[in-house]
Amino acid sequence: KEKKKSYQNSGMLHCTTCDLQIENTFVDYVRGGMEIGLMIGVDFTASNGPIEAHDSLHHTSDQDDRPNDVGGNVEH
User: Residues 61-75: pLDDT tens digits?
Assistant: First the structure.
């Protein structure tokens, strides 16, 4: 519009204050030193077999170490 002969100044805007609000990301919090606790719950009940059987995974299982494996990977 400014190039047209009939153009008139549309006005001016004066700001007396300006307030910027920064929204932090998850990474910003971690880099800032925030400590995080991780809790994992896994229910393998359906795949463990009958609870009465002594060889079922309800009594002994490699699954006991899985949350530690996942937590160790997240930790690093």
Answer: 555 566 666 666 565
Per DSSP, the residues of 7-51 read ---------S---------HHHHHHTT-----------GGGS--T
Asked if 47 and 68 touch (Cβ cutoff 8 Å), the reply is no
Q: What are 20's two structure tokens? A: 């910027």
The residues spanned by each domain of the chain are 38-75
DSSP 63: G
